[in-house]
Write a structure and sequence with these properties.
A hairpin with a 4-residue loop joins strand 1 and strand 2. The protein has about 575 residues and is mostly helical.
């Protein structure tokens, strides 16, 4: 976007919206458009651009165009026929909100000009997967005096779609040589992502004895902190710098303290993230890797086979067999990390050579919650003496919750650090959720969310949500920051879409959190409504979830939205939700 005349900027914004980009890149332009608040005359002068927006893939951009064009209904300067002709792509979408918006736009145009041929366009949505959309189309066709297709009448009842097959996941390609390793590390010094870091770790272990000429730019970069001023220990880019220095620094420099990675820090007492915490575990693992690099080459076994963090049991067994046959041992916590990336139901199938199991660290990397997620309790904590008390749900052992509430308080990239912790548990959503609860509790009141990576990981799980994961999802739906709420909604939708959402478990935790006064009811009810409106697959589990709430809604001033949603979903499905 460029500075200058706001009207020129409006043209730039519309041009950007018409270019197909990832949703995250388009959203700022939608917000900027709304901030410019174009007048009806300005929209009319640019009607061709708004009509073209009806066919883009980005839903919020389509809804923006629908809203602005609806303002022009009845204006003689609007070419309403072009709007009707451009409605095809919008009406053939499978989401609810965009299709409903287009149906309502066409209805407004038809009221202003009954001669417009909108009926044929409306019939494109007559067999939409959602029953409420089909009912809306039937009503609008009836108002136009048009016959309702028999198929639409026959589909006038709710049906939940069968669970969708999970999408194909891309394979992870290992770093090919030391030159590519240099390129990967240089990218990570600008922006850290978990998968890129895993590729870097794998490459560092395999090419740790090589110093290619291409490493000179990297060596120059790591001589200075990753940002102006003093090095910031909690910045995950600083962790990348430590790893790169451990690789490129001469071996005679052996001070262990030089290779310590910190990803979180408490101020009172002043201490790095503790072992057994999610952030502390991520730092421990990276510290072990950095120190191992000082010894030369090591075998690498923990690189995910696919981008979702998975390692099939047979793949890991093969990797371990090669290591044992060569008489090698594994660095640090890599055996535990690799095993945690195998689906829990398949871990017993992994053949771990005896000689490798004997050299594993005495203390596991993530044992704070014991062998299984522990009993749910709510504890009252005071992070620092001068701060107010905070109530946090805990699953498992006592841990260091008061200190954990401080992690990330002054670290601008703490969300990236938390993503590195979540990457240690891609196949254990309940354990991940249990360990993430201090940060989830903090997001209830913080303007800047840090838990988006946790919700993304929970949404990628294909096992049913247990108590800890359900509690995490409810906390996310009630977070203060819209980013966290959106990520939690997406996670619930994904679990429902792939047949993994346990609505009863979600409702049980929602009832507990509401009853204990830990979440804002209005945010939670809004989140549940958004999920229900985004896909039919989520409706039956949400009916189950809402069935658990009536006892805790008695006397609450915010009970109305929950009751209304339960009634609507009950009418839609023919089921009572309590």
């Amino acid at each position: 976007m460029q500075d200058g005349d706001p009207r020129d900027e409006l043209d730039d914004v519309l041009a950007a919206l018409l270019r197909e980009r990832p949703a995250g890149e388009v959203a700022p332009y939608v917000r900027r458009h709304d901030a410019l608040a174009p007048t009806s005359a300005e929209v009319l002068a640019r009607q061709a651009a708004y009509v073209a927006l009806l066919g883009v893939a980005h839903g919020p951009s389509v809804r923006l165009a629908q809203r602005e064009l609806a303002r022009l209904a009845g204006d003689p300067g609007l070419d309403a026929g072009e709007v009707v002709a451009a409605s095809t792509l919008a009406l053939e979408r499978t989401d609810r909100v965009t299709v409903v918006g287009q149906v309502r736009l066409l209805a407004a145009l038809a009221r202003a000009d009954p001669a417009l041929p909108v009926a044929d366009a409306l019939r494109l949505a007559a067999e939409h997967p959602r029953a409420d959309v089909r009912a809306l189309v039937a009503r609008e066709l009836g108002r136009l005096g048009e016959p309702v297709p028999a198929r639409t009448r026959a589909l006038g009842f709710f049906f939940a779609p069968a669970p969708a097959a999970p999408p194909a996941v891309a394979a992870v390609v290992p770093v090919a040589d030391a030159d590519e390793l240099v390129a990967v590390l240089l990218e990570l010094l600008d922006e850290v992502d978990p998968l890129g870091l895993e590729r870097a770790i794998d490459g560092l272990l395999r090419f740790g004895d090589q110093r290619p000429p291409s490493a000179r730019p990297l060596a120059e970069r790591i001589k200075r902190p990753v940002r102006p001023g003093a090095a910031f220990p909690g910045d995950p880019r600083e962790a990348v710098r430590v790893l790169a220095r451990a690789w490129l620094t001469r071996r005679r420099i052996v001070l262990d303290c030089t290779w310590t990675v910190e990803l979180g820090r408490a101020l009172v007492p002043d201490a790095a993230a503790r072992p057994g915490t999610l952030i502390g575990a991520a730092g421990q693992r990276l510290t072990a890797i950095a120190r191992a690099l000082r010894d030369g080459l090591w075998p690498a076994v923990a690189l995910p086979a696919t981008a979702d963090g998975l390692i099939p049991a047979e793949v890991l067994s093969s990797r371990l067999a090669v290591v044992a046959a060569a008489g090698r041992r594994l660095p640090g916590y890599e055996l535990e990390v690799a095993l945690r990336r195998v689906p829990p139901e398949d871990r017993a199938l992994v053949e771990v050579p005896v000689e490798l199991s004997r050299v594993a660290p005495r203390r596991p990397l993530l044992d704070a919650t014991g062998p299984a997620v522990g009993e749910r309790r709510t504890v009252v904590l005071r992070p620092v003496p001068w701060a107010p008390e905070v109530r946090v749900v805990r699953f498992g052992a006592e841990g260091t919750l008061a200190q954990e509430l401080q992690y990330g308080t002054h670290e601008p990239r703490f969300e990236q650090a938390l993503a590195l912790g979540a990457a240690l548990l891609p196949q254990d959503p309940d354990r991940l959720a249990a360990l993430a609860h201090p940060y989830l509790a903090r997001d209830l009141t913080w303007d800047r969310s840090c838990t988006v990576p946790v919700h993304r990981a929970l949404g990628a799980a294909r096992s049913a949500n247990g108590a800890a994961a359900s509690s995490a999802l409810v906390l996310g739906l009630a977070a203060k920051d819209a980013r966290a709420r959106g990520a939690a909604q997406d996670a619930v939708l994904d679990l429902a879409r792939y047949g993994a959402l346990d609505g009863a478990a979600l409702g049980e935790q929602a009832a507990l959190l509401l009853g204990e006064g830990l979440v804002v009811g209005r945010r939670l009810s809004t989140g549940l409504r958004e999920v229900a409106g985004a896909g039919d697959a989520a409706v039956p589990p949400l009916v189950d979830a809402l069935a658990a709430l009536p006892p805790v809604l008695v006397g609450r001033h915010d009970r109305g939205p929950f009751i209304e949603l339960a009634a609507e979903l009950g009418e839609l499905t023919g089921r009572r939700s309590g």
